[in-house]
Structure formats: structure tokens, C-alpha cells
Amino acid sequence: MGRHTAALVLLCAGTAVLLLSAVALAVLPGPYLRLHALSPASTLGAPLVALALAVDTGPGRAALKLLVIGLLTAAGGTVTTMAVARTTVRTEAAREARR
């Protein structure tokens, strides 16, 4: 399997994850279900796209930069999801306390 073919497979997989997450975000009700829909986009979809670009670029600095971007996106997506979930819990608790 050639480098371009591998990049195309990774790109299609990453794009599919991103599209499915976008559809789930539009369809699912409630903030917690939406968080579950967004989590795969940041932890799997975007890193797969970055990996596809790195594979297509070939060895070198550009590929290394793309891999670092993919790793930071995967790690940052998890942290962001947790931060949004905690903020949502606090906001809902504050709303309930006002009632």
C-alpha cells in the first residue's frame, strides 16, 4: 500500500468520524449527549486527519509538526470535554438552586 493510499484511508476515516459527530450533535438532545457526540471528533477525527496529512507529507519537519498537532488535539479534546461538562453541571446546579 502506497503512502498516498494510506493517507487517503486515514483521511476518509477521520472525515467520517467528524461528519458522524456533527450529525449526532445536531440530532441529540441535551448537553451531556452532545458532549458524547463531540468527544470522538476531537479525540479521534481531528488526529486522524492530522495523521493523514503527515503520512501524505512524508518524512520531515512538516510531518512531525502535524503529528504534534494531532497529539495536542487528542489530549486537548479530552480536557476541553471535561471542562465543558463540569461547567454544565455547575450551571445546572445554579439554576436548580434559584428555583
Index terms:
99 residues; mainly alpha; elongated
How does the SSE layout of this entry go?
Blueprint: H1 3-27, H2 31-57, H3 61-98
Helix pairs in contact: 1-2, 2-3
Strand-and-helix sequence, N→C?
HHH
Largest sheet: none
Distance between the termini: 62 Å
Integer average pLDDT: 88
Number of domains: 1
Name the structural class: mainly alpha
Dominant shape? elongated
Helix amount = over 70%
Q: Quick one: how many beta strands? A: 0
Strand content: under 5%
Task: State the low-pLDDT regions, or none.
Answer: none
Structural overview:
The chain is mostly helical. The chain has one domain. About 90% of the residues lie in helices and about 0% in strands. The chain contains three helices and no strands. The protein is elongated.
What is the gist of this entry?
The protein has helices spanning 3-27, 31-57, 61-98. It is an all-alpha fold and 99 residues long.
